[in-house]
Amino acid sequence: MGGDNLFFNGIDLSPYFRIKDIRGRGLIQRYVNGIPVAGMEGEHFGSINTPQKYLEIDVRITGEDLRKTIDELNSILATNAPVPIIFPDEPEMTYWGIVETSSESGEKFHLKWHDTTIIIRRSDPFKYGPERTRNPISDTTTISNRGTAEADPIIEVEAKESITYAMVQNQNDLIQLGEETYPKYTMVGRPYDVEEKPFEKYQRVYYSNASDLVGWTTASNSDIDGGIVTGNIVTRGGRFVADSYGEGSNWHGPAIKTSIERPIRDFRLSAFVGFLNESEANMVGRLEIYLLDINGNAIAKMALKDTSAARAAVFAEMRAGDRNNNDMIISGFPTRETGWNNFSGQLRISREWDDRMEENVWSAYVALVDTSTGRHHGRRIVSEWRDGGRYTNNVAQIVIHMGTVGTHNPIHANSGVSSVILQEIVQEPEGVPYIAHAGDIITFDSKKEDVFINGEPRNDLLDFGSDFIQLAKGENLLVFHPSSFRSRSVKYREKFR
In this structure, are residues 225 and 323 in contact, taking their beta carbons and an 8 Å threshold? Predict the structure, then answer.
């Protein structure tokens, strides 16, 4: 890379302008905060903050059609978030910024050039080297950080067996507590001692990967929320999908039902579903999964719906109780009303009895899943909702239903349920629960200060004394616990002031 090849958000801007000058890449700027004391000469030293920085790029825009060139450039520069910026004289370094304004200094339209200064705000005042990856690495390994500031690593481990905790410690990233200094660590879960035993808190009682309909029968009208059961559900493409919806003036569509081996009280129901509602106009549909007791009374429901024929907008319902006597734990759209359109992700609802309070504790979870990375996003979560002891019937049956209204177009034919798993929640007051099993991926992301297990954020499992570790300048000795990892990797970008 050379000459005027400035890359902005991955786009080479050399066809649009020639760089005349660049400012804002010089020596550091810092805010030094002092603590004044009455009667004292001077002050106590307080702290140091690194403020945002600005890049100022003087350019000459040229083009046969100058106005069109400027319009195209405006379109490229008008991003909604900071983007990567790479300068021709630092091809290995990446700055992050967003265009805030510009300052015009002259134009000769008849000569087809326009001089201006592009002003870029850098909320992140650091620049970054290329991403480095260390893999494979052992339980104890040394990582070298050749940057001029601490780096934020992304550390990933794969469990080779069931584990109750996962921890990584950096012996060179120190924290001071009182007069002592200690190495930082990041840990989820907790180890167990000789007087404790590990246990499986979530024990599977039913699972289907939608490969066949063995054990499923046609459900009844009384098993769903209004409307009639008509049409058929089949297995296609690794999903339970609606092959036909039948006919009806109100809600109608197919529903199937299966029973579990024995009724259970405390449960967690999870499903991976697709709800594709944008391919055609006038689409109206619902995808629902119910839990019933032995008499067919609804105990809980997970649902995605698009009930508007005028616009595509998916909302979720996560419910405790039946159609007439219930509480909605989650009900509504995501932050952006259309954010769950063409939904592909996970639904989950759980109930666990609290002996001390004599009531159930419920949780509900809705999340899109990026199938290329496994990361969950667009989430709605309620981690603790208490029912006052109202919904206590044991779970005995599972119902899957897909429906539409009247003659409206149903959701896309590939919509459906890819997997459904029902687990019994086991309580062991003297035990330590497993947090991961063989093949599970645990990710410690120090940049975002998040922990993921198989792509799902699990900061709720962080140990109270945890800090997200950084890579100090120079050598860093990382120590992993326990030894029950099939693989370990560290990704990081060296950071420069």
Answer: yes
Joined together, the tokens standing for residue 321 give 């109780």
Domains with residue ranges and CATH for the chain: 7-124 (2.40.30.200), 129-194+434-496 (2.60.120.860), 202-425 (2.60.120.200)
End-to-end CA gap in the chain? 23
Determine the Cα–Cα distance for residues 468 and 170; give it in Å rounded to an integer: 10
- How much is the average pLDDT of 427-436? 90
The C-alpha atoms of residue 59 and residue 123 are separated, in whole angstroms, by: 22
Q: What single letter denotes the amino acid at residue 170?
A: N
Q: Across-strand partners of 432?
A: 198
Whether residue 416 contacts residue 210, with contact meaning beta carbons closer than 8 Å, is answered with: yes
Amino acid in the structure at residue 363: S
Query: For the residues 172-195, what does the mean pLDDT come to?
Result: 89
Report the half-sphere exposure of 275 (CA within 13 A, side-chain side). 37
Contact at 8 Å (CB) between 432 and 162?
A: no
> How many other CB atoms are there within 10 angstroms of residue 81's CB atom?
7
Separation between Cα atoms, residue 28 and residue 32, nearest integer Å: 12
Q: Following DSSP, what letter does each residue of 132-178 receive, concatenated?
A: EEE-S--SEEEEEE-SSB-B--EEEEEESS-BSEEEEEEEEEEEEET
Return the residue matching tokens 């400012």: 23
Kindly tell me if the per-residue pLDDT of 131 is higher than 90.
yes
For residue 77, the surrounding DSSP H or E stretch is helix 66-77
User: Mind listing the pLDDT tens digit for each residue in 337-369?
Assistant: 899 999 999 999 999 999 999 999 999 999 999
pLDDT at 371 over 80: yes
Side chain identity, residue 205: V
